[in-house]
Amino acid sequence: MIASMTGFARREASGPWGTLVCELRSVNHRFLEAGLRLPDELRAGEPELRARMARQLRRGKVDCTFTFRRPQGSAAALEVDHEALRRLLAASHEVSRALATPATVNALDALRWPGVLREESVSGEQLLAQASAVFDATLTDLAAMRAREGARLRELLEQRCTALEELVAAVRGRLPQVQSRVRTRLQERVAELAANVDQERLEQELALLLQRLDVDEELERLGGHIAEIRRVMGAGEPAGRRLDFLMQELNREANTLSSKSQDLEMTRSAVDMKVVIEQMREQVQNIE
Questions:
Q1: What is the pLDDT of residues 136-160, one digit of tens each?
Q2: Is the pTM of this model over 0.85?
Q3: What are the C-alpha distances in Å from 132 to residues 18, 19, 43, 51, 89?
Q4: Which of 64, 73, 248, 251 has the CA that lies 20 to 30 A from 17?
């Protein structure tokens, strides 16, 4: 089963400890790149959240945003971190001595200093456990959405594989007419010259000309690549990179087919192939 790299999921959980909201957004990327925006209360859990994401997702640029709101009307106690205050005062006195200028530390300024005043809050372990559960649920939703989008992309790719097969069959069915026309054209040219030509030599020249115009190998390889695309899509593993490589191979064969063509209908079919392949390539860019 293939999966898309584009998706969005949001989960919210509330309790006596407050409200946690987790949002995950993912877009195309060559590798897995995770960006996490976490409140200070959840910073300690960042490595574990990254590890969980890497276990479930293979590719994509994924942005995770956590917000934490305390219960409305909560009257949490304010505490002074005496060690942080001691360090602040010591640093202030040291600067005053160095400048030879007496200075006093304003109480409100000290309270505004990061870390001096802290709010009594819910247990860090309890909050991390809640955040972990919310994250897992959101990640599961994101993976499910990416899988649904992947199923839609697979259906579109299947349709285009069928369209390519029809174009390959059309070119193959056209080959006898093209070869007959080349033979007739060569014979008419010889007749116009009113020259006596060795029939065996004429057949040799004709064989060389048809060999240069032969596209059987290109058609065989196109068919093989289409079969491989179907195999990869049904393999049940990340398929994006493999499919991207196959798109390049399909395009190479279509270009060769176009360059060898000496027939308007075959040329049109080759151009149609390249249009379909480009549509497939754009879709493959979004596959994990």
A1: 999 999 999 999 999 999 999 999 9
A2: no
A3: 15, 13, 12, 12, 38
A4: 64
